[in-house]
Amino acid sequence: MNSTDKNTLWPMGRAQRRASKTRTKLLDAALVVFTEVGVDAASIEKITDKADVGKGTFYRHFADKHQLLQALIEDALEKLNVRIADDTGMSQSLEGLLERLFDEHVEFFSQHMEQYILLFQGRMLIKLGRDTDGAIEAPYLRYLETLEKQVRSFVPAGVESFKVRRLSCAIAGFVFGFFSFGMIGMTPEEMQDSIRPLRRAFVESMARFLAR
After folding, report:
1. Tens digit of each residue's pLDDT (9 = 90 or more) over 53-78
2. What class has domain 70-211?
3. Segment 73-94 mean pLDDT
4. Are 206 and 168 in contact (CB under 8 A)?
5. What is the per-residue pLDDT for 10?
6. Which 8-state DSSP code applies to residue 40?
7. Domain boundaries, the chain
């Protein structure tokens, strides 16, 4: 039996469970701190205080706060990817698919506002050239690829690839943008109620965009 088989068949040991629990505490604490004060103002000390662990413990799990940020962004976008890629009740048309993708984003952001704020901050760091090694950008690119994969099966033959990427960016940009302003003076429930009437117009315009 190789090591992979052992890891599959044998339950996690006590030390591994403790390490996993500590890592989760650090991730949860960092999400709160990043959301409350922003990535730049967040310090390792603030994160460890929130998690109630020592700095030495932090460095056993993460090299720095940016590696922690990367892990949080990867986790948030992977959860969103799972929702996007779920073909339960598969759409029968491009318009139906776009409506589902739109709704999945709205539901996810409404239910995970802290992750939304984190993802928004991550995009700003990329825009400002602060992601020097591309580690933060990579999960965003995988997310866009997931969107493109869903859209391609409904795209008419002959449509250029760049249009599919633009459509994927438009879906993400529309919902991200709405929530960035909707957070000013609106509750999550009010944001959901406000954005849904716009869905039909958005879907129709995107379908026309691909048809041109």
Report:
1. 999 999 999 999 999 999 999 999 99
2. mainly alpha
3. 87
4. no
5. 52
6. T
7. 1-62, 70-211
Residue with the two structure tokens 């088989």: 5
> Cβ contacts of residue 88 below 8 Å, gap of 6+?
none
CB atoms within 10 A of CB 142: 13
Residue of 52, 48, 77 lying closest to 65 (CA atoms): 48
161 CB-side CA count, 13 A: 3
Instruction: For residue 140, give both structure tokens.
Output: 């965003």
Residue 33 has what DSSP assignment?
H
What is the tally of helices (H) and strands (E) in the chain? 10, 0
DSSP assignment letter at 114: H
CB 39 within 8 A of CB 125: yes
Amino acid at 53: V
Mean pLDDT for 44-57 is 96
Q: Which fold has domain 1-62?
A: Arc Repressor Mutant, subunit A (1.10.10)
CA gap 90, 55 in Å, rounded: 48
* Residue 70 · residue 136 · CB < 8 Å: yes
Cα separation, 27 vs 205, in Å, equals 39
Please report, as a single letter, which amino acid is at residue 146.
Answer: T
The terminus-to-terminus CA distance of the chain in angstroms comes to 58
Cα dihedral 46/49/54/55 (nearest 10): 0
- The DSSP string of 53-113 is --HHHHHHH-SSHHHHHHHHHHHHHHHHHHHHH--TT--SSHHHHHHHHHHHHHHHHHH-H
